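Q: I'm writing up a methods section and want to include an example of the input and output format. Could you take the sequence below and give the corresponding predicted structure tokens, formatted cleanly so I can copy it straight into the document?
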Amino acid sequence: MSASVAGDSGVPPAGMLRATLSPSLLAGSALDSGTALLRFADRRVYVDSLRVEQPGLIATGSGSLGWTRGTRGTLALDFDADSLGSIDSLVSWFAGDGGDASADPPGEALSGSARVLLTLEGSLDSVALRHSTLTRRSTRSRTG
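A: Here is the clean output for your methods example:
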């Protein structure tokens, strides 16, 4: 990670943050790689590029959000999963099951594929969410 950001509690930050994600785990799901380039300017956080890859999922994003109310932006996120089974524990974690595979009924797992487009609008302290989902063969199926 490299950063050149300046600011204090009374002033929105200014500068740039570049982050690279190495292979790791998130909620029991393997993450292959990731990159993000963020800029802080004009009372906004600009996401110039965002990409996270893991087996079965590619997530990308770009846009901006205001730092505080009164400064607005729009951030578009695209989650494309060609294999829902590979992100089962991550979906359980987001759903509030803590990523614990035992939270699924015995022998059940996600299958199929899906694409989710999220749009965040507003600022960091007052954000609105819009979404669109395209699901292809998404089911919870018995495996045993």
